[in-house]
Amino acid sequence: MRIELNFKIVLISTKILFWLRVFILNFSYYLFKYFPIFKRIFYKKIEEKINKDRPVFVIGVSEIANVLYYLSKIIPNSISVCLYPNKFYPKNEYDIKLREVEKKNDYIFIYFYGAFLLGYLLNVADTFFFIWLNGFVFNGNDIGLLKNKHIEYELNFIKSKGKKIIWFFCGDDIRSIKLTKKYLEENDLDGFVNYYSDYFHSDHYDKEKKLLAECVSKYSDIIFNHPLDQLSYIQIKQFMPFYYYPIEKFCKNAKKFNDLEKIAILHAPSSPLFKGTPLVRAAIKRLKLEGYQFEYIELINKTNQEVLDNLARAHIILNQFYSKAPGTFGIEALANYCVVLQSTNFKEYISLYLQDANELIDPNDIKIDINDFDKIPWVFTNYWEIYDKLKFLLENKHLLKKIAENGFNFAKKYFSSNFAKEYLKLILNKNNIKINDF
Q1: Within a domain: residue 163?
Q2: Residues 318, 288: one domain?
Q3: What's the predicted TM-score (pTM) here?
């Protein structure tokens, strides 16, 4: 009885908060529309930054794996909005940023401020580029309670003002655990979803993912989502997501391979269980017991800068072993001239771009044999192969520098800001969304 009463209280309060945000959004939109003088009063820096005679992009509102930050750097005439910062990137600067969210009261502040902010942005921007599953008015945590009404309202409001919507999904924001588990069972594979708690395997959770997918499919002009790594209920065409590592951050630190007497092996998982850390530790322990000499570095809950500092001296990177995508850490490792072991098959990965960006893919890269160590960009490693592949490299140190070189060049070709600009421009143009020249 008490649980049912508490649920009703939470539901009623959530609905009240939602309708308050709706009121604030409408008030704000018409305030800035009919009294433009308030734009410079509230958002002077933004008004001075953007050129309203050219397409204006809003990128936000959650920071996941530096996606928001890097996208704002490659998309010209954009406004970066970070309402949900990421603890791993404390030094990132955005046009509009709120403090770290730690308390429930902070979320309530975001709810109200986000609605007011959206009212302003709708008067100056042309395209809204969403990342993850939070918006200005809605929060992904409320999907189960509000049955998508808050998402539906916000996206419909944006579209009703003649704006474009792009969505960039990053993982569990859109991934159906049920569909993923079914895929794993059909292919006799293990996967990180098998280690999720029962809640994520429930019909209730899956229904939330269906509701989200239906809603974004209805209102989005473009959706970037990995069709295999992030199996979902999205109903419209999905474009491959892309990486955008700044070309100026690529560091060809070849000197570290001059001394291979003691190899430095780095593993820096954001989520140890889901990245395969227990399997990594088992392989490392077995190799040590067999007498192999190396330095093993494991970084958990460290800032991105601490990880980058260790990449500078590491020779071999053990990335993630349940994924079909390299992830941000994998790209950072390649860009820092490291030999990367990961479960992503590079041939399969870049092949997914052929349908929509064939002109950006070198056909010779798809022909590379995964065992040709003179040409491979990284060591394709299934979760059951970590020990064997790592042992092979420790016994064949002469191959390391060449693999690192290949990976460095491969990342420049397909995972840099240069590729991202060309790919993004190509996809947006195909979908009649205007973007300024880079």
Answers
A1: yes
A2: yes
A3: 0.93
